[in-house]
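Title: [Solved] Eukaryotic translation initiation factor 5A 3D structure

Original question kept below for reference.
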Amino acid sequence: MSDEEHQFESKADAGASKTYPQQAGTIRKGGHVLIKTRPCKVVEVSTSKTGKHGHAKCHFVAIDIFNGKKLEDIVPSSHNCDVPHVTRTDYQLIDISEDGYVSLLTENGSTKDDLKLPTDETILAQLKDGFADGKDLVVSVMASMGEEQICAVKEISGGAK
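Solution (posted by the thread starter after getting help):
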């Protein structure tokens, strides 16, 4: 018997809760898929016929949901693909700080202050102009794979949502 103590520490995050498996042949246009560890929205799917050596293949063309880059992947249609959990949440805008962060009001009344201003010029202009004009704004935040980003801005008209 050994007197040594063994401690096991997890050095890597498996990311199991960030994705779920789905058969490649069942993923459709408009759905989401993980390509090169990036969450993407599928814009085109084509399936090849089964060849001499087996499987039909699915060719995915997808756009990264955070940076807009086009990515492609080819997967046998009977194999599983990782599909990211993508959520979209609306928050009311409270403030924009000088250092490029936004302060948002959550549904339970607390504040969320860890989001940067969006990099998309159109959304950024809409956000800054609306805030400068004193309008009540709601921002939609897309979250997936541990990343969050403002993806849309809309004005609350007449105080009703």
